[in-house]
Records
---
Amino acid sequence: LASRRRKRKRKRRRRRRRTIMFAQHHALVQKSLAPFARSGRQQQQQQKKSSASKSFSVVHPKAQKAGAAVMDDTGEVTIRRRPPAGHKEHLGMGSERFAFKMEAVTPSGERVDNEENKPRNILEEIVWYKDYELNVMKEKMPLSLVKGQVKLAPEVLDFKQAIVDQTNQTGQPGLIAEVKKASPSKGVIQPNFDPVKIAKAYEEGGAACLSVLTDEKFFQGGFENLKLIKAAGVKCPLLCKEFIVDAYQIYLARARGADAILLIAAVLDNQDLKYFTKIAHSVGMKVLLEVHTYGEMKRVLSGDFDIDLLGINNRDLGTFKVDLNVTVELMATELGKQVKERNIVMVGESGIFTIDDVNVVQNAGCGAILVGESLVKQDTPDVGIKKLFGRPL
């Protein structure tokens, strides 16, 4: 009997210890997540205030008003360059040999979800993977070797001038037609993907320039597509559509035949934009700077670096939702007036499917458009270009 009593007491003590440990663990997790909860509430409050204080009368009939997020005045870089707790490899092959450290260990030794080390959106996930991907690329092909290949690359074509010339000739925005197979939001767009065939069709259809997706994991592209298109004799200048976070990517783009690169303000601060622009110009390439919000546009325009082309992406790269009204609203502000006064070539990006869409961004002040999905998914992209601009077939 005494033995049974002692056993019952030990069980009660163990239950009490587990209860206390669980309570301590719960409090620790709540404490670690508190800053994120406060940040989320503060962001919601700021968006509500901004939405209440700003209104716009020009709204594209196909889209709802872009709203407070687009008109955010901060302009700060919103994307973290790499996971706070680092990367972690696991068994597998190719691009699957990569994962984020999704677990954290509490002082008591228990494993919990590591919320801080999870990407906040699709763009951040892409950028985080670039950090891993670049390490692999540099091991296979050091920067010194890439720079040597730059000297052997085809002659650089003037990307900006090709757009200006087409606008002057046609009275319509210069077309940057995009060569891409897939996207994170749509999956495979063109199952019969042939980069050279598509590029030649774009050129025959009247594109001024081409944009070539080089991201492998999320867009199923590659830097080699630039080389293939150049080698096939396509004369249109090429934009390397890459999520650039390192000078290595710029030199590799030029080595593979690119005439221009894309830099995204949501990913890069002004110091990076200035540095990367300087490198691109040093090897003869032009730069398309891309913004999505009022704050990003304001920050870029205030930077102490030259702007070749300034693009407004109607697609939120965090959610991949498209709203053509982003271009309309931003160009209706004092920043839109400034770019017109400075004679900066503006590029309307994403969400352009019809001649009505072309007219909307042109009337807003864009001298060029970047079009991908609506053209590349067609079996006859050259005919698609003529239909897009309302030209005779």
---
Amino acid sequence: SPKSAAPIYCCRHRRPHTTAAGRRQQGSNGAANGMNGHKTVCIVGVAGFIGSHLLEKIIREKDWHVVGIDMVAPSKIQQLLGAEKKWAARFEFHQMDVTTKEGVECMREQIKRSDTVINLAAICNPSEYIKQPVNTINSNFTDAQDCINFCVEFNKHLIHFSTCEVYGRTLSSYGLDAADPKNYILDEETTPMIMGAVSAQRWCYACAKQLVERLIYAHGTQNGLKFTIVRPYNWIGPRMDYIPGVDGKDDGQPRVLASFMTALMKGDPLVLVNGGEVFRTFCYVDDACDAVVRIVERPEKSQGRCFNVGNPDNNIRISDLAELMIDMYSKITGKPKGTTVKISGEEYYGAGYEDSDLRIPSMSLVNKQLDWSPKTTLKEAMESTMRVFIDKYADKLANKKRSADEAAPAIKAAKV
């Protein structure tokens, strides 16, 4: 329909999919009205979980023009599309495959006309690190280089999303004094990065991300690239991940929060990989996006820096997270409390699985440079996220289970 199609472009076809009104928003050089003195931000990976929240914050709170790029359809940003939206003239979406020659050239065009480039594109799901290690490395290192090179070519500020996994395992996990903060607090400028053996392919993601960080730093030193690196610590919130069999593959394995929510809504036990003994530090996505906006707004404070963006107050053992979510789900829905089951990492993910033990960010640099600190507690973040999951998926999963139960006798009879 014209309402949903107005701001959408498809570079693959070299022509805008838009209404006449939408076309009039374009200037003679192809730039949008947001180019008239306002900052223009290009978000690569805009239709994903983080991209959708960042886009929403920017277009609702700032006067910036946003050029959005993604390989997937804009389902997570659909509520922001439409010629009738008051920000329609400041946002356009380009769906393209940035691994093709045509897609790369189109991305180059969009980066050229932007002031700041935020690169979110990546594979960041542990199950994929084991199943598709080559694709994981290519996606996170090889495919990232075009965006980096274009920012060098056109002298743009690149905000590249890395991961807290680049730190690897903590020093305390190797026997150093666990009471000494320097052995477990992860500091951007002093903490060593310790990965597992090459045969432990779980680390292919972290190694690819670390290598691309080093490449970006090298471009900064050698070619004057203006850059900022963001290391997210398990950002959570609405629209994250997927539910297997509903909007993801039946055999998919989403990250821990979506995995636990799937089990709760289906009435299955929550799977604790390796007993759920590792810790994670969760940060609410709204808080995190505020940090990213500050990076854009304060280049003199952010360029040439790498920032931890997380919430050290929200550190929790995964087995305790399961109990928290079981209690919260029962309170929200009134249903009986769920259960847990323990399974080995190799059985769940496959051979080559290892994990980092603890991820607690040092906040000194981000506090000092950006005057930022997170505000949302773990319980607040979890409840907000869980309620969205329930509203969106509970009925769909119930209907799916009902259909499966009704089909079971016929399937059983056919096998006999």
